[in-house]
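We were asked to recover a plausible sequence for a given structure. The inputs and outputs are reproduced exactly as logged, with field labels preserved.

PROBLEM: sequence recovery
POSITIONS: 95
GIVEN STRUCTURE:
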């Protein structure tokens, strides 16, 4: 006996909800993935597989990667002014 159409639609909604939650979890970890930080090899593999299979997450990953590269480049080109360094050192010594 075939299931009513409403049951199948409800299953699809449930499946999409699970996928959205998985996407959310993946995207929360993406900065750790990009920085090579505290992720197990299994977590890294799961993220790689998800990015290969999920276009929207892959697009967000690409955007995050580009932002990370831009910020990294900016950090290399700008340095802390000597006066600010001296002030910080003084505060730390007094602290």
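RECOVERED SEQUENCE:
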């Amino acid at each position: 006996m075939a299931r009513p159409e409403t049951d199948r639609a409800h299953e699809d909604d449930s499946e999409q909800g699970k996928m959205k939650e998985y996407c959310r979890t993946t995207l929360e970890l993406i900065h750790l993935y990009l920085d090579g930080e505290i992720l197990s090899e299994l977590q890294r593999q799961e993220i790689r597989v998800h990015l290969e299979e999920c276009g929207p997450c892959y697009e967000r990953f690409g955007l995050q990667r580009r932002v990370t590269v831009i910020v990294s480049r900016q950090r290399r080109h700008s340095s802390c002014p000597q006066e600010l360094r001296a002030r910080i050192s003084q505060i730390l010594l007094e602290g």
